[in-house]
From TrEMBL:
Source organism: Aspergillus ruber (strain CBS 135680)
Protein name in UniProt: Uncharacterized protein
């Protein structure tokens, strides 16, 4: 609200989260059943490793180890073998605890706050704005390829492909600069996707 109350008169771009993107069935990601546990579980192993490394890089070691354990438990369940059966009870217990945590409204509250911010901006007409929700697999430490695809979100699910897709921060920055210069997405909720997996992840 500080922007709304300020004397600044130029256009603004607000960056939220993927939780406000719509599926084709008209349900927003953060309202999907089992959010966010189900969507964490669906992450590719490479994205889980990226998320763990990112947490360690930012000094959040506890969260980093939690993601590593989550990844191990998922692998234990999905890749059964004679040895993995010995640890299956521990894997199931860990995933059960993770489900409790990742479906707790207090845990994912920030994502719901981002959606609330979008709802607030959708009523603003006296300031030129656009609202960017990055895809679910946003990654840094990538490459700037200059390649990205913009998807405008609506309740019909026009941005559905972005929910399980990704982009590097470097390419998302290009998309943001292009919007600053071209102003093609004013008063719209949008996302962007691009190539990932070009380096370690």
């Amino acid at each position: 609200m500080a922007i709304v109350r300020s004397t600044y008169q130029g256009p603004v771009i607000i960056i939220g989260g993927a939780g406000s993107l719509y599926y084709k069935n008209g349900v927003q990601l953060c309202d999907d059943e089992g959010f966010a546990f189900k969507h964490w579980y669906a992450w590719p192993y490479v994205h889980m490793e990226y998320m763990a490394t990112r947490m360690f890089d930012h000094g959040q070691t506890g969260f980093g180890y939690f993601i590593r354990l989550f990844k191990w438990a998922k692998s234990n369940r999905e890749n059964p073998g004679w040895f993995s059966w010995l640890f299956r009870p521990w894997a199931n217990l860990l995933l059960w605890k993770a489900r409790q945590m990742l479906t707790n409204p207090d845990t994912v509250g920030l994502i719901f706050c981002s959606r609330l911010a979008l709802s607030m901006w959708e009523g603003v007409k006296d300031i030129q704005w656009s609202f960017l929700s990055p895809p679910w697999q946003l990654r840094d430490k990538g490459l700037r390829t200059g390649k990205y695809k913009v998807l405008v979100d609506d309740s019909a699910g026009s941005a559905d492909p972005a929910i399980n897709n990704g982009i590097y921060n470097e390419d998302m920055a290009v998309a943001i600069v292009d919007e600053v210069e071209n102003k093609k997405l004013s008063y719209k909720h949008w996302t962007c996707t691009g190539p990932v997996g070009l380096r370690e992840w």
